[in-house]
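User: I'm preparing a small set of examples for a lab meeting where we compare how different chains pack in three dimensions. I only have the primary sequence for this one, and I'd like the structure in token form so I can line it up with the others. Please keep the answer compact; I'll paste it straight into my notes.
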Amino acid sequence: MAGVTRGKDGAVGILTLNEPESLNAMTPDLLGALGEAVGEMTADPAVRALVLTGAGRGFCSGQNLKASEALGQDLVGGVMKFYWPTFKALRECRVPVVVAVNGVAAGGGFSLAMAGDMVVAARAASFIQVFSRIGLVPDLGSTWLLPRLIGRQRALELMLFNEPLSAERAREWGLVRDVVDDVDLMPEAVKLAQRLAQGPTRALVATRMLLEDSEHATYADQFRREIEVQSHIRQSADALEGRAAFVEKRKANFSGR
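Assistant: Understood. Below is the structure token output for the 257-residue chain.
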């Protein structure tokens, strides 16, 4: 598929943005290919986690300015048509998503990195908002995602000053789970994804959903919502296996069902 390569390591699907000459800058074609790849990869029931990374020196350098014509005169309509389905597919993916940031994640690329569930970064990686440097506001979900990950004050600092955030500082601030040597990035990201792939997939994804719902719910509403989800998911094969393993004092063997 143009712009995106696909691979597998056991139960882990690996998607790579593969336009390194532009540092994997966003275009409607690239984002469309990524969305399609997410859908096709996760349609395979054997895939129980995804890793998303970039080829070359960068993860994603943001919007490719040459691609603006493809979005059309209606910017809102163009972005919602070409970009939103892919971000939505990542946020609502039926399996956990690990993002392996191998280099710069700038502008919309920063937003894309945050769209997964967990981020692992190479030591050479960096994150920069960049928008106000060119007189624009953050987009592609940045103003929703970033303050929820690192807090309002730090999010504003990154957005107003446009100073690069190193991988190490990103870990200190809670944006990144792990920072590893560059050569170890993919092995470590895949290892993390394999841990997730061995878990009760439906419960993991439902947990993500509950966390997102909680941003807009009262304590009482969320209290009830948790039990509503629990009452449904407790009948799943993995929940039954988990309870049996607990009683039998053995490790659960989850199937993702």
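A couple of notes for your slides: Strands lie at 4-9, 12-17, 49-54, 58-60, 97-101, 104-106, 118-122, 126-128, 165-166, 178-180. The mean pLDDT is 94.

User: Perfect, thanks.
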